Amino acid sequence: MGPEVQRRKSHFCSVCQRVVKMDMLRKGPVDDVTWLKCPDCEGIVPVLSAAIKELMGMKEEVPGTVMKNECPEYEMSGNYDVGQIFYHKIWDDYGMVLQKGKESQKGRAIMVSFLRGGLKKIVENYQSLDT
Ligand SMILES: [Zn+2]
User: Fold this and answer.
1) CA of 103 relative to ligand 1 center, distance in Å
2) pTM listed for this prediction
3) Alpha-carbon distance 61 to 53, whole Å?
4) Ligand 1: centre distance to CA 40 (Å)
5) Ligand 1: distance of its center to the CA of 84 in Å?
6) What's the CA-to-centroid distance between 21 and ligand 1, angstroms?
7) Mean pLDDT per 10-residue segment, the chain (131 residues)
8) Sign of dihedral through CA atoms 26, 28, 32, 36?
9) How far apart are CA 100 and CA 27, in angstroms?
């Protein structure tokens, strides 16, 4: 058995205002987000590759440390911005919106990178047609 993989990474924490040795919660592939957690403030930190930033159309502005209790709860009828992080209650997971698709009659598909679940396509602005 080899040595344990190093699951820590030094990264700037925008809450603690300094570089912290963070725990790597999920190491994403090149086209996905890597998620860190600051052990001091307990905030989660999405780290975006150049490919992801390009996909999102983001240049400099990246979300820094995000406190879990400040994330809005995901609702199918909600509307989210690219770069926004929300909490998905049913999956007990946090996700960041990477891309928004076209609006259809029943809502809009959004590509979300989840902390635990990875990339998933879900729906926002969902309109129930039951009424
Ligand atoms: Zn911190």
Assistant:
1) 37
2) 0.87
3) 9
4) 5
5) 19
6) 10
7) 68 96 89 93 93 80 88 96 95 95 91 95 86 54
8) positive
9) 23
